[in-house]
Amino acid sequence: MRALIELPEDQLRALSEIGRRTRRSRAAVIRDAIAGYLAAQRGGAQAEAFGLWGTKAPDGLAYQRKARAEW
Q1: Which helix (H) or strand (E) is 18 found in, with range?
Q2: Which of 15, 31, 37, 70 is deepest in the core (most CB within 10 A)?
Q3: What is the DSSP letter of 50?
């Protein structure tokens, strides 16, 4: 499938330079960049939703004492 996008000249030059350095087409560089962006976006949502604590790092012993104190 094709998509028509407009990019500023400086971004096109940078993408072309990356393609020359890595011996790949500019289209391949763009596809990889988009794939990386999408993976990062998906990974962020998964990390936020994973587990009860998310990104917090609670003190397990303090949590246990607090929970037992409620009994």
Answers
A1: helix 9-22
A2: 15
A3: S
- Over residues 17-29, the pLDDT tens digits come to 999 999 999 999 9
Task: Specify whether the CB–CB gap between 19 and 29 falls below 8 A.
Answer: yes
Instruction: Give 28-42 pLDDT, tens digit per residue.
Output: 999 999 999 998 888
Strands (E), the chain: none
- pLDDT for 62 equals 84
The rounded distance, in Å, linking the Cα atoms of 8 and 39 is: 24
> Which 3 state secondary structure label does DSSP give 40?
helix
